[in-house]
Fold this protein.
Amino acid sequence: MKRTRLALSLLLAACLGGCGLTRNIDSRTCASQCEADPDPDACIAECGTCKGQCVNKTPEGFDGPALLWVGRTVDEPQCPDSAPVIVYRGHESLDDPIVCDPCRCSEPTCALPEGLRTAASARCDGAGIPLRERQDVLNGVCIVPSEALVSDRKALLLGSPRFMPCQPSVEPPPVPLITFSRWYRSGKACAGVTREDACGSPSKTCVPAERMEEFSQCIMHVGEGEATCPEDYPEPVVLYDDVRDERYCTPCECGPPTGGECSLMLLSYRDGACSDLLAAGAAWGKEQGCLAPTPGVRPKSMKAVWRVNEPGRCEPRGGELKGEAIPIGPSAFCCKTRPGRKDD
C-alpha cells in the first residue's frame, strides 16, 4: 500500500492544473485535456510543446518522476512553481540524541546492630535474655538494666554494626536538552502536471523542469527489496517514514559501601549514672562485641557509643545508553543527480 502513494499523489498533482484550463485534468494527452476548451486548437498548440523537461518514460517497477529534495530539515525549500504539490515526505538521518543522566548514590550509614543479649556464660557463648531497652542503649543513653539481663557471672553480647546500603538516584542535567526536530536531514518530492504527447516522441514524457538546484528528477521504486537504478537515474536515495526507537538507559545501582568503618563500644558502670566505668567491649566489622563480667560486681548502668562512625562511600553503576534507533518504512528513489545542495 505504501508503495502506491507516489503514483496516487502524482495523479492528484496532475489534476491540479495545466493548459490554462478551468477544469481538472490528468496526465493523458493534450487532445483529451482540451476537449472542453472553447479554443481546443489553441490549447493543443500551447500544451503540445514541453515547457519543462522531456525524459524517458518511467521504467516498469517505478513510480514518478517527481522533483526530489534532500537536505537539512531546517533548510527545506518550498516546492517549485512548476511542481507545487508535495507527493512524498521522508527522512534521511536522525537528530534525536539521548544522553543518560549520571547516576549517583546516597551516603551510606552505620546501622545499629540487631540486638544486645546476655551470654550463656562468662565466655560470650550462646545467648540469653534480650535487652528490652536496646535502642536507648545503642543511642548512647545511659540506662539502668534489669537484674534479669546482667549479672557478675554472665557476659553481654553486642551484635556487630551494619553498613546500610546506599540508595541510587539520577542526577538531572543542569540545562534541559532542546531539540527542534527529530530528523537532521529530510526529503520531500514535489510534482506537477505531466504530459505524454508534448515531447514529439511516444517514448518521452514532459515533466516539470529542475529549475532549482536543490531538486533533482527522481523516480521511486515500487515493491520490496533493493532497487537497481536505471541508467537515466543512476543516483540511489533512501528515505524513511519513521524510526523505531529502542534506545534506553540502564537503571542506576549502587555498589556496597567501601572504605569505611563502623564500630561500637559497649560500656558498663559500677554506679547508676554511667560515670564509674566497670568494663568495655567493642564490636566492629563482622565481629560481635563481648563485655566480660567482673566477678562479684553487677553493672548498675550501661550504654553504647560509636567508636568509629565512618561508613565510607558507594560507587554508582548504570546510566549507560543501550539499544539503537532503527529507521523504518524505507522508500528507495533513483535520481538523475544527487538531490540537495552540493555543500550539504
Notes: Confidence is low (pLDDT under 50) at residues 1-5, 7-28.
